[in-house]
Every structure is written in structure tokens, then in C-alpha cells.
Design a protein that fits this description.
Shape: elongated
Mean pLDDT: 83
Strand content: 15-25%
Distance between the termini: 25 Å
Helix content: 55-70%
Structural class: alpha/beta
Strand order of the largest sheet: 2-1-4-5-6-7
Number of strands: 15
Radius of gyration: 41 Å
Length: about 575
């Protein structure tokens, strides 16, 4: 249940917090006051898309926070299925989202989460229905989705098994397509793979060989510079009469002669002696390396040609020796598969037949189950249509077989209705008006209310295009749904508003802040007399007459009696 909604700096909302109750929560107010923005903010908090112009003028960011109480075990399981580390021990879930220019950040119980996870939580926590959402009744696939939602747990395992069977079949088909069915084409592939594998293996590559060769090549092509550098270094260290070694040795002898007279000199003597030793070692190593250094044009040519060969293979098979060797492994595996392609294809063909039979069996079981739920759903929707004032409550769910099975079976589900006596049945999309679609969707929601695990339902102006007795029927239907669910409903009809368990008035006003005028929307929970006054405004408009107030009290009294009678039943 949505316990509290907080909005800061979003559109007309500056700093607003509203606590919702159980049952039917009604929101009313003048057009443009911000009722739909309030509902939209809930969707934004749960990962909905936003644009920077939604942020209140003059502000850098907006903030939305929703606090839910989670007391239903199935709902808890679904939430934990999305995030197994979610802490629901206290039965409370706090979701927040901060919106700024070009970016947003979401949190669940204080932990940062992605928008994808927020949207996943949305499907469990809220079901938001506006007038546009009735269009799902006109969309291909929308009817099947509604039937499957009605079937819920009863269809879940069958749908999962059907999906697994479908994916298994597709994997067999993928393997068969990979082998190909054309013998000539397969032989051409074998010839190419054989050549490429032979080319790589024939190069006799070793991992890391290219790096070693590049180092050798760099040394060989710079041989003359290296020899000159060694020669100059030797001359500097041990040149006749002025080399560094002779000078350091002379320094050692001079310090040695006086080191016994002064401890500081003795320390300097030790340091210079160590330098002399290191310098002698370096002089010897330079000399030995210079004597052993070899240069061969033939060796340069050999290394160059080997590097060219490796680089050609890199360009063809991958950017490293490791990638080239992996390419050879892949080709040899593919050759092994193709070598026995005919037998493999035969085996796969048999496996495909088995998988096709399995998929059709799963589809058939799913269709049978859907038909069973369709009959139950039909009956509940017929009751709902009758309650909602349809002249004829004929409603059928027809399940037809599609040409090819898919992940969710081979069923095409269509809703048919006969709203007027004497007329035949017609597909829903062909005859229903906008107002009729809203009422049909409400009947569907009522049928699904006892089955849905989403405990908070939001209806945004579901009363569009209705009045009179139909409005009474819609009000009663919403009241019935509110017996098992928390319902938040925006309405312009007094009959529906009178059914509220909690009634909220949304108003906007112009206030002066720091010398500047600004428009601010606020929301207030109404008491009984305030509710009567608001119902009177809805009935009479700007001038609320005593007659309108009397009518409002009658409406509220009737609603209270209806709810009490429904509970007594």
C-alpha cells in the first residue's frame, strides 16, 4: 500500500506531502490544478521518463519519495525476486528519485539503484490506469496479456515450460542452420577452413614470440648506434690518462692515506671505495657485452621476414599471437563438426522433430488452461458490464490458433462484445467508444482485483465520457475493488467522489515569496463538511447553492449506505 507521497520542486508542486489511506482515495480539484501531475510523479519516482522542463522554474532539481507498506507475502516474494538483498523485515519500502538537468538518481531503502530496477519494482507496487491505457484493448496482443494476467499463477508454470520448449527448438534450428544443407557450400567451407587452419599451424607460432622478435629487431637495426655508444662509454670510463675509473681510483688512494686520522674522512673513503667497485664492475660488463655483440645482415633479414609473417596473420585472424592460435582452434572445431555433418544433421533433424512435438504439447496444455481461465474471466466481466450499465452484457474471449507457435504459445486471443440487444458479437476494437473502453477496462480490473498482487491501483479520470446511472455504477465498482485493494482515483464526478474512504482536494494558488509571485499547488485531506462542500462544487460549479449541498449530502449518505450494505453482504 502507498502510505505517503512526497514531492518537491516538480512542476506546480513546491513542497508537498500526502498520506493515503486504505480503500478508496479520491482526488478532486479544478482542471489544471495538478491532479494528473500528482499521479505522474508516482510514475517518475518508479523510473518513468522525464524532461528537465518538469523541474519547477528557478530550481536545479526535483525530488519524489514514496513510502510503501508491504504486508502481502506474494508481493514480498515478487520484490525479492527482483532484488534478493532487499530488506523488507520492517515491512516498509521507501523509494526516492532525484531529478536534475540531464540526469537522475534513484534509491530503494537508501541504496542506489538503476532506472531499470525502479521500473521492475513499479510493476509490482502500482498499477496506473488512465484513459489512454484503455487503448491496450485495441492493440494486438493486449487481450492475451490481460487474460494471462488474470490466470497469473495458474498459467505461470505452463508459460515458463512453453518458453523453454520454444527456446530449445530454436537452438536446434540454429545448429542446423550453422551446418548448412548444401553439400557443395559445405565443402567450400571445409576447404577454406582447412587452408586457414593449415596456414596458422604451419607458421608454428609461440605465445609471446612477436614481442621477443620485436625487441631483437630493434636491437639489430640499431646495432651501429649501440656499438658506438658502448665504445664511447668504455673510453669515458677507462680512457688512457683521463678515464673515470683512473680518477676514482686516485681519489680512493688519496682518501685511504688520511682516513685513519678522521672518522668523517673514513666514511667518505668507504663511499668512494664502493663507487670504485661498482664502476669497475660496470666497466668490465660493458667491455664483455661489446666483445660479445654480434651483428648479421642475415639475422636482420630472418627476424624481419618472421615479423612480417606474424603481422600478416594478425591482420587476418586477430591482433595478437594468442588470437591467431584461438582462430586456429575455432576452425579445427568447426572442421570436426563439418566432417560428420551428414550424421550430425540427421541426429539434429530427429531431435528437432522431438522438440517440435514437445513444444506443440506445451502449447496445447497452455491453450487448454487459457480456455479455462477465459470462461471464468468472461463470467466475471459479464457481471461487471451489467453492473456498469451496459444494455447487454454479452462478452466472449475467443482463442484462435496462430500459424506458428511462439514463446508464449500459439494462441491469438481476442475479446468480443455485444453491447446492444439485437446486434451480433463484434471484436472489441471495432465498436467500442472511448467511454465504453474505460468501463470495459474497469470491469476487467474488477475481475482481476482478487488475483492481482499489485495492491495499489491508480485510476486517472476513468470517468471520462460517462454520467448518470453509469457514473453510479462506476462508483460502486470502484468501491468494490477498494474492498481488497488500495485505490487512488482522480475524478470529476460527484457520484464517484462520494464513494471515497478518504477525499483529497487539490488546489493551486498564487503566493508571494521574497517579493516574487509564484503558483503553488497544495493538497488537503477533507473532513466530512469539507467533503460535502467539494461535492457541491462538483455538482453546481463555482456557485455552490444550498440545493447542491443537499444533493451532496444525499450522495454521501447513499455511498455510505451502499458500502455498509456491501460489507454486510
Amino acid at each position: 500500500m502507498l502510505q505517503e507521497l512526497t514531492i518537491k520542486n516538480l512542476a506546480l508542486f513546491k513542497d508537498l506531502s500526502v498520506q493515503f489511506g486504505k480503500g478508496l482515495n479520491i482526488l478532486t480539484g479544478e482542471t489544471g490544478a495538478g491532479k494528473s501531475i500528482l499521479v505522474g510523479s508516482a510514475l517518475l519516482a518508479l523510473g518513468g521518463r522525464y524532461t528537465s522542463d518538469m523541474i519547477r522554474a528557478g530550481e536545479d532539481s526535483a525530488y519524489i519519495e514514496m513510502c510503501f507498506t508491504i504486508d502481502d507475502d506474494k508481493q514480498k516474494d515478487r520484490l525479492l525476486g527482483i532484488d534478493e538483498e532487499l530488506d523488507l523485515a520492517g515491512g516498509e519500502l521507501i523509494i526516492s528519485r532525484r531529478l536534475a538537468e540531464g540526469r537522475s538518481s534513484g534509491r530503494i531503502n537508501g541504496e542506489h539503484v538503476t532506472q531499470k530496477k525502479l521500473r521492475a519494482f513499479a510493476s509490482v507496487l502500482l498499477d496506473v490506469h488512465g484513459q489512454r491505457d484503455s487503448q491496450v484493448l485495441l492493440e494486438e496482443g493486449g487481450h492475451k496479456a490481460l487474460l494471462d494476467a488474470y490466470g497469473d499463477d495458474g498459467l505461470a508454470d505452463l508459460k515458463r515450460e512453453t518458453e523453454e520448449a520454444y527456446r530449445a527448438l530454436k537452438e536446434i534450428e540454429r545448429q542446423m542452420n550453422a551446418l548448412g544443407s548444401d553439400d557443395a557450400q559445405r565443402q567450400r567451407e571445409i576447404d577454406l577452413l582447412t587452408y586457414e587452419a593449415s596456414e596458422i599451424r604451419g607458421a608454428d607460432l609461440a605465445e609471446g614470440e612477436d614481442e621477443e622478435l620485436e625487441a631483437v629487431y630493434a636491437r639489430l637495426v640499431n646495432a651501429q648506434a649501440i656499438m658506438e655508444g658502448l665504445s664511447h662509454a668504455q673510453e669515458a670510463l677507462s680512457g688512457a690518462g683521463g678515464g673515470a675509473s683512473d680518477l676514482i681510483s686516485r681519489s680512493v688512494r688519496e682518501l685511504a692515506s688520511v682516513s685513519t686520522y678522521d672518522s668523517q674522512v673514513a666514511s667518505l673513503y668507504d663511499q668512494v671505495s664502493e663507487i670504485d667497485t661498482l664502476l669497475s664492475d660496470a666497466t668490465r660488463e660493458i667491455s664483455e657485452y661489446a666483445d660479445s655483440f654480434e651483428f648479421s645482415e642475415a639475422e636482420v633479414d630472418r627476424v624481419s621476414r618472421r615479423l612480417d609473417q606474424i603481422n600478416r596473420l594478425k591482420a587476418k585472424y586477430g591482433g595478437s599471437v594468442e588470437s591467431i592460435l584461438e582462430a586456429a582452434d575455432n576452425r579445427e572445431r568447426r572442421l570436426a563438426l563439418l566432417a560428420d555433418a551428414e550424421q550430425t544433421l540427421e541426429d539434429l533433424s530427429k531431435e528437432k522433430c522431438l522438440r517440435e512435438e514437445e513444444l506443440l504439447d506445451k502449447c496445447s496444455l497452455l491453450t487448454t488452461a487459457r480456455n479455462e481461465y477465459a470462461r471464468l474471466m468472461e463470467e466475471e466481466i459479464r457481471v461487471g458490464l451489467n453492473d456498469l450499465g451496459f444494455a447487454d452484457d454479452r462478452f466472449e474471449i475467443r482463442i484462435e490458433r496462430a500459424e506458428e507457435p511462439a514463446e508464449d504459445g500459439y494462441d491469438r486471443v481476442r475479446f468480443y462484445i455485444g453491447p446492444n440487444p439485437g446486434e451480433g458479437m463484434h471484436e472489441l476494437s471495432q465498436i467500442a467508444s472511448g467511454g465504453e473502453l474505460s468501463r470495459i477496462m474497469l470491469a476487467i480490473k474488477a475481475a482481476m482485483a482478487g488475483k492481482e498482487q499489485t495492491k495499489t491501483l491508480i485510476f486517472d479520470e476513468i470517468d471520462a465520457g460517462i454520467s448518470g446511472r453509469t457514473a453510479d455504477a462506476v462508483a460502486q465498482k470502484l468501491g468494490a475493488i477498494a474492498d481488497t485493494h488500495q485505490v487512488i482515483c482522480i475524478t470529476h464526478l460527484a457520484q464517484i467522489a462520494a464513494m471515497a474512504d478518504s477525499h483529497y482536494l487539490i488546489e493551486k494558488s498564487v503566493v508571494t515569496t521574497d517579493g516574487q509571485e509564484e503558483t503553488v499547488t497544495h493538497i488537503d485531506k477533507l473532513g466530512y463538511e469539507e467533503t460535502i462542500k467539494e461535492l457541491g462544487r462538483i455538482l453546481a460549479g463555482a456557485s455552490v447553492t444550498e440545493a447542491a449541498l443537499t444533493n451532496a449530502r444525499e450522495l454521501k449518505k447513499f455511498a455510505e449506505q451502499y458500502k455498509k450494505g456491501a460489507l454486510d453482504e
